[in-house]
Automatic annotation (TrEMBL):
Catalyzes the decarboxylation of carboxynorspermidine and carboxyspermidine. One of its GO terms (molecular function) is lyase activity. It comes from Halopseudomonas formosensis. The keyword Cytoplasm applies. Belongs to the Orn/Lys/Arg decarboxylase class-II family. NspC subfamily. This is Carboxynorspermidine/carboxyspermidine decarboxylase. The lineage of its organism: Bacteria, Pseudomonadati, Pseudomonadota, Gammaproteobacteria, Pseudomonadales. Its EC number is 4.1.1.96. Residues 147-321 form the Orn/DAP/Arg decarboxylase 2 C-terminal domain. It is an enzyme of class 4 (lyase).
Length: 365
């Protein structure tokens, strides 16, 4: 048995998402690039790269990883490039997308022989959280003034727009795209490619995939552009679990169980977005608050019901632990970092990476 804690990526679950992505590409003509900021566990890129066109990135290191480990098309984007990284970014990408007109102009000479794009900010988004809202007031994410963008059109051949956030509502996507067309339509006609970013939850249960395909296809035809999508969460949703072991149980007005993991270190988004971890549904009679082993008082995975009493040594499994999870794991409290295991399509589980004390020590000096 593999020692906990570990993340377990199940390729057969990943495949369900990949097949929907393949369907979308075929029926819409759009290309799909994995957003590495959401998921960058390259052990499963062999499978994913058969179903997706390539990767998009948020930094030099991500673009380099995409080029080296995924292949295909490699889009470089960053909120801001530093002078000393631009050469390497260009060497590892086939398109570069600048976040601002200022950056585009600063690196105009350096990138003269590269395919270039600019991020637009349509000032509408589907985000429920201000911290994750690219269209928040005073947002630095992209240019919103069409007149200003007009002046740099000779420098670019495409746009990137990312304003969806786990949006499972097709009609909302549709109406926001309508607004984008109203605001930027005359510019869209003048480019060759448009990336509509990530955040569309089209691999989710019950999503009207055919309507999305038709909408993207009509958009591509209207403006004569190659459409790209940049799925992060949609590509890996429900593919991965975090496997943990109960280390102690106690009763302090509620039954508590402490496990060999921590939300701050291993599932940080639960803390940022104040959400509960998820387990396979169970409505047994034994209720526990499952807590992490860090010393943060609020290190709580959530309250769950079990069909048995929990005891030391029991294993628990949190579901949907791929997106924005492994990429954010950290050494807070020196908690042992989860290993990474992959369940292959033939059912065999392979331990692909373990972390030890030396990794902890070498991350600091
Ligand atoms: C975060 C991000 C994505 C991926 O978003 P998901 O919600 O994970 O699909 C894609 N493109 C850009 C520019 C992003 O910032």
């Amino acid at each position: 048995m593999i020692k906990t804690p570990y993340y377990l990526i199940d390729k057969s679950k990943l495949l369900r998402n990949m097949e929907k992505i393949a369907y979308l590409r075929e029926h819409s003509g759009a290309r799909a690039l994995l957003a590495l900021k959401c998921f960058a566990t390259w052990s499963v890129f062999d499978l994913m790269s058969q179903y997706m066109d390539g990767t998009t990135s948020s930094s030099l290191y991500e673009v380099k990883l995409g080029k080296r480990k995924f292949g295909g098309e490699t889009h470089a984007y960053s909120v801001a490039y530093a002078d000393d990284e631009i050469e390497e970014v260009l060497a590892h990408s086939d398109k570069i997308i600048f976040n601002s007109i200022g950056q585009l102009q600063r690196f105009a000479d350096a990138s003269a022989n590269h395919v270039r794009g600019l991020r637009l900010n349509p000032q509408v988004s589907s985000s429920d959280w201000l911290i994750a809202d690219p269209a928040r007031p005073f947002s630095r994410l992209g240019e919103w003034d069409a007149d200003k963008v007009e002046q740099v059109m000779p420098l670019i051949s495409g746009f990137m727009i990312h304003n969806n956030c786990e949006n499972s509502d097709f009609d909302l996507f549709d109406s926001m795209l309508q607004k984008i067309e109203e605001r930027f339509g005359s510019l869209l006609e003048r480019v060759q490619w448009v990336s509509l970013g990530g955040g569309i939850h089209f691999t989710g249960e019950g999503y009207p995939l055919d309507r999305l395909c038709a909408r993207l296809k009509a958009f591509a035809e209207r403006y004569g552009v190659q459409v790209y999508l940049e799925p992060g969460e949609a590509a890996i949703t429900n593919s991965t679990t975090l496997e943990v072991t109960v280390l102690d149980t106690l009763y302090n007005g509620k039954q508590l169980a402490i496990v060999d993991s921590s939300i701050e270190a291993h599932m940080l988004d639960l803390l940022i977005y104040r959400q509960q971890a998820r387990m396979e549904p169970c409505d047994g009679p034994h209720e526990y608050m499952v807590c992490g082993k860090s010393c943060l008082a609020g290190d709580i995975f959530g309250e769950f019901r079990f069909d048995r009493e929990l005891k030391t040594g029991d294993r628990l499994s949190f579901i949907d632990a791929a997106g924005y999870t492994m990429v954010k794991k950290n050494w807070f409290n020196g908690v042992k970092m989860p290993s990474i295991a992959v369940r292959h399509l033939n059912g065999e589980v392979e331990l692909v990476r373990e972390f030890g004390y030396d990794d902890f020590e070498s991350g600091l000096s």
